[in-house]
Amino acid sequence: MIRVLLVDDQPLLRSGFRAxxxxxxxxxxxxxxxxxxxxxxxxxxxxxxxxxxxxxxxxMDGIEATRRIAADPALAPVRxxxxxxxxxxxxxxxxxxxxxxxxxxxxxQPEDFLHAVRVAARGDALLAPSITxxxxxxxxxHPPGTGAGPGLxxxxxxxREAVVLVARGxxxxxxxxxxxxxxxxxxxxxxxxMAKLHARDRAQLVILAYESGLVTPxxx
Length: 220
Description:
Elements: E1 2-7, H1 11-22, E2 27-33, H2 36-46, E3 50-54, H3 62-71, E4 79-84, H4 90-98, E5 102-105, H5 110-121, H6 129-141, H7 157-167, H8 172-179, H9 183-197, H10 202-211
Parallel strand pairs: 1-2, 1-3, 3-4, 4-5
């Protein structure tokens, strides 16, 4: 059973999401909050598998709530998915940097919403290659810092190559084709790189790759 925490300051939207999730046999909404501070406390109390958190709320916004969840070792199993009306704007970008596993636009189709919850619950990053490429575009506009990131020296050559390809927006299947290996081996390289770099998910891996200088945005 996938245990979900809903955090949104709009009761009507919360009730709509809950009604949709409650129809599924494998998903249970265990708690609801109306701001980031309440959501953080509920996450600590209930330890959900997924926390669906609105990005803009009173008292504490979704970015700060995400940052605090990601920084708390006791909440390591909690996967944060950001809810937004605006697509990949600066707020979402900052939430991904803070530790969110991905994001959903609130007008997403119901079947895509449910699929996203299940993807995040499996531990996969809710970040399609097309979104990764948009993250890269954001880095072109906002140049990353320089210098080696933590743990880069611990990567094998193949892991390093896999990280570069993830940061270029390739899926695991595309990485496998490029490296002439199986998709399972590609996924293993990516997962080992995430573990060594202490990246929570694929989104964090992309950000670390650019901020460390391992990858430079094209066009700069």
